Amino acid sequence: MKIGFIGLGIMGKPMAKNLVKAGYSLMVNNLTPEPVEELVACGAEAGTQREIAETCDIIMTMVPNSPQVKQVMCGEEGVGAHMRPGTIFIDMSSINPVASKEIAEELKKYGVEMLDAPVSGGEPKAIDGTLSFMVGGKQEIFDQCKPILEHMGASVVRCGEVGAGNTTKLANQIVVAGNIMALSEAMMLAKKANVDPQLVYEAIRGGLAGSTVMDAKAPMMISGNDKPGFRIDLHIKDLNNALDCAHTVGSPVPMTAAVQEMMQWLHAHEGGSKDHSAIVQYYEHLTGQKVSE
Amino acid sequence: MKIGFIGLGIMGKPMAKNLVKAGYSLMVNNLTPEPVEELVACGAEAGTQREIAETCDIIMTMVPNSPQVKQVMCGEEGVGAHMRPGTIFIDMSSINPVASKEIAEELKKYGVEMLDAPVSGGEPKAIDGTLSFMVGGKQEIFDQCKPILEHMGASVVRCGEVGAGNTTKLANQIVVAGNIMALSEAMMLAKKANVDPQLVYEAIRGGLAGSTVMDAKAPMMISGNDKPGFRIDLHIKDLNNALDCAHTVGSPVPMTAAVQEMMQWLHAHEGGSKDHSAIVQYYEHLTGQKVSE
């Protein structure tokens, strides 16, 4: 069995390396040559997208967003049109689940089955092979591919049919963004009311207000640390997909729209490369006071 | 030493009982006679507010909100004006921290020191004596009163000067409300996108999206259970105080305003006696679909 891997970015490169280490025969492709050379040095083979389409049994993509997946896979010149019937496409990018379904629909014409399998965990877990996969697709295709994904992830969960992986990822990103906004609002109020945010954090973290976001991000807000972690611009991308998806399926997302707007403001004023916990800086800008001061 | 206890409601009654059990001499007062009789049967003494003011060394209140605390404590006919210099007032009600400071200021005139000491944990923890106290006031007064509060609470944390207890409580309630809103929005989106909310919950609870709210409330939303828990109308009261306080200190609270509006809508349409996780019903009403169906 031969695996094709398209997209060797910050996430894709270490993920592909883990597959080579696990002993799979890998053909890789990327827009820029350096990560391809790195993978070839590890034992992978370089190939064009067409070569990957024509020779691989399972093809994976790890690219920025829905348009990039469509560009690679769809249309007469796309990878999908040149895959052999019975082969499998696994998209591990975080994209709009509506796009996942559209791509799966097109691939059906070529006899190709698809899983959408976005991940959470970021670069460190990509390197360690301990990502969390949220997967959508047919049960039998999932069962067949799970052992491969397990070389890149500590948790591989099927959430439903195609699109369910990315829907779950969007639900995750909505909750994370909302929890950061709630924490920011509470920390800022404490600061403006002259109460030490550190003491507030310590007093409430053990109760119903406690969360993984609170334990990860409150110390960053309190110390004024905005190094990523997870970048604002990536979270904006995910929330744009969440809003698109919500509009398509008819689900109201007023909180997501509000926090996305805060992130957009931050992106315009500060750039998108800070940690997403920098949402607190939206509040700090409005009050002229820093939680960390 | 004699303790006065004013306000024997759902929370106050079991809290007062725990003080009697701990061996304190207690004089109690309440608007209605039944809980007073119950406390007298346990070994407490009944008294008017004036008798409590004139004979007790520490006086505690556990009443609904800022106006009730002011009504009991302030003005020429209030308890404060008849307390002896050197005695202590502990308000355990959840009120506006701005009001706490105003009351403390007035009591200073009579030589009375004050702690604001709101609690979280609800009736079950009031009965068990395992509440969490968030306390504001002078360090020496806190040190003196902490052993008494520890008969009612498992955790007694000083967060700063007078008002800091209620500010911390408001921060807590902001985070809880925001986390419930975020969870509701994510669960509804999953449902409308035809992905099983239970699978979404299981897939994301272990990651950055995980929270105490998620583990407590997602199963309630998924099963359609809206029994309190913590009632919507009490959370509305707390968020009204949060908005008041935020406006006074000049801290922006757009998320708190949005979720408070959802709770107000729910109160108008469904009454205020459901669990605060019923915020999800705002989304369900808009989509015409239940997360639990």
Notes on the structure:
- Two copies of one chain form a homodimer.
- With 293 residues, chain A is an alpha/beta fold.
- Chain A folds into two domains: 161 residues, Rossmann fold, CATH 3.40.50.720; 121 residues, N-(1-d-carboxylethyl)-l-norvaline Dehydrogenase, domain 2, CATH 1.10.1040.
- Chain A has a six-stranded parallel beta sheet with strand order 3-2-1-4-5-6, with helices on both faces. In chain A, strands 7-8-9 form a three-stranded mixed beta sheet.
- In chain A, helix 5 links the parallel strand 5 and strand 6.
- In chain A, helix 1 runs parallel beside helix 6 and helix 4 packs parallel to helix 5.
- Chain A is elongated.
- The mean pLDDT of chain A is 97.
- At the A-B interface, strand 8, strand 9, helix 8, helix 9 and helix 10 of A face strand 8, strand 9, helix 8, helix 9 and helix 10 of B.
What's this entry about, in short?
Two copies of one chain form a homodimer. By secondary structure, chain A is α/β, with parallel strands linked by helices.
Secondary-structure blueprint:
The structure is a homodimer of 293-residue chains.
Chain A: E1 2-6, H1 12-21, E2 25-29, H2 33-42, E3 45-46, H3 49-55, E4 58-61, H4 66-73, E5 88-91, H5 97-108, E6 113-116, E7 119-120, H6 122-128, E8 131-136, H7 139-149, E9 153-160, H8 164-192, H9 197-204, H10 212-223, H11 232-249, H12 254-270, H13 280-287
Parallel strand pairs in A: 1-2, 1-4, 2-3, 4-5, 5-6, 8-9
Antiparallel strand pairs in A: 7-8
Helix pairs in contact in A: 1-6, 4-5, 8-10, 8-11, 8-12, 8-13, 11-12
